[in-house]
Design the sequence.
């Protein structure tokens, strides 16, 4: 399908442009507020920290001035306070942008029925995502969430980052888009096509060995890149060697950014498309919004991802249902 297949009609585009004009009128005011709030908020903090440090010096040992334990805690506290104050200073800009997205996103996705938009909450389908698809993680964050009906099936699409550990020891299990959808035919069990694991992740998946068995699809390139695991070998084998292998080959050609992953579990299907890009992010408050530059690509991106999910959901369908 072409990007033009998802573009709204002239009346909707005219409404979008009116919303952009309203946003632009408020954007200039928000930008002005941020310009003075950031230096004022941080400047006052610097003055306060310097004053408290001076008071510490009045009572501290001369040899420990500026480097005593109270000073260290003061500087650490000042750093934390600076981060908090910075985000408070730019609040007019972030609040305006989020309000604009709340209005804009449901409007531009006219090809989605019953469209719903949320931000920063846990998606309903996330707990049903087979963990073997991504490997171990203990930290998760969510950005934009779009749900509704595309063609004849309900879906939930969301941006997420899944990781384990913190700081330099952090390992990112997945960052990108997850599309959860209702399958055409329920799969009697769980089947995942995940990235070939390193030793640590392989150990994690091995903990599920009592119920999850590994298969091969017979395509050398795919078997070298993917692990196919299932708790129902008999039902999974014809899919792994047939439609799933063809779908993954096609995904490798159409999604060049990183290795896409697929999971089926009962009536739930999942398509995971790694990408560092934030698909539905607006430009900085200093940049004017333009329909062709900033809005039209969002529509094309979502349309392409849902069209891809529509093809992937046919993996488990019966021949007569798949068409």
Sequence:
């Amino acid at each position: 399908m072409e990007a033009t297949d998802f573009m709204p009609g002239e009346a909707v585009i005219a409404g979008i442009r009116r919303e952009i004009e309203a946003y632009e009128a408020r954007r200039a005011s928000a930008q002005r507020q941020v310009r003075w709030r950031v230096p004022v908020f941080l400047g006052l903090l610097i003055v306060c920290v310097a004053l408290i440090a001076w008071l510490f010096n009045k009572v501290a040992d001369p040899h420990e001035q500026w480097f005593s334990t109270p000073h260290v805690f003061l500087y650490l506290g000042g750093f934390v306070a600076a981060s908090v104050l910075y985000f408070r200073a730019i609040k007019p800009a972030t609040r305006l942008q989020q309000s604009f997205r709340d209005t804009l996103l449901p409007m531009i996705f006219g090809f989605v029925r019953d469209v719903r938009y949320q931000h920063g909450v846990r998606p309903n389908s996330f707990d049903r995502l087979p963990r073997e698809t991504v490997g171990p993680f203990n930290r998760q964050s969510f950005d934009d969430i779009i749900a509704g009906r595309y063609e004849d099936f309900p879906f939930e699409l969301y941006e997420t980052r899944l990781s384990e550990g913190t700081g330099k020891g952090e390992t990112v299990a997945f960052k990108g888009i997850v599309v959860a959808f209702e399958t055409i035919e329920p799969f009697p069990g769980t089947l995942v096509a995940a990235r070939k694991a390193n030793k640590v992740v392989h150990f994690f998946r091995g903990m599920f060995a009592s119920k999850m068995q590994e298969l091969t699809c017979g395509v050398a390139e795919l078997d070298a890149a993917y692990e196919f695991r299932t708790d129902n070998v008999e039902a999974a084998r014809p899919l792994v060697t047939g439609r799933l292998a063809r779908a993954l080959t096609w995904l490798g050609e159409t999604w060049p950014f990183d290795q896409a992953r697929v999971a089926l579990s009962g009536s739930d299907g999942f398509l995971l498309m790694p990408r560092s890009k934030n698909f539905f992010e607006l430009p900085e408050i200093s940049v004017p919004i333009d329909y062709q530059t900033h809005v039209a690509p969002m529509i094309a991106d979502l349309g392409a991802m849902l069209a891809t999910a529509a093809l992937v959901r046919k993996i488990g369908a019966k021949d007569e249902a798949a068409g």
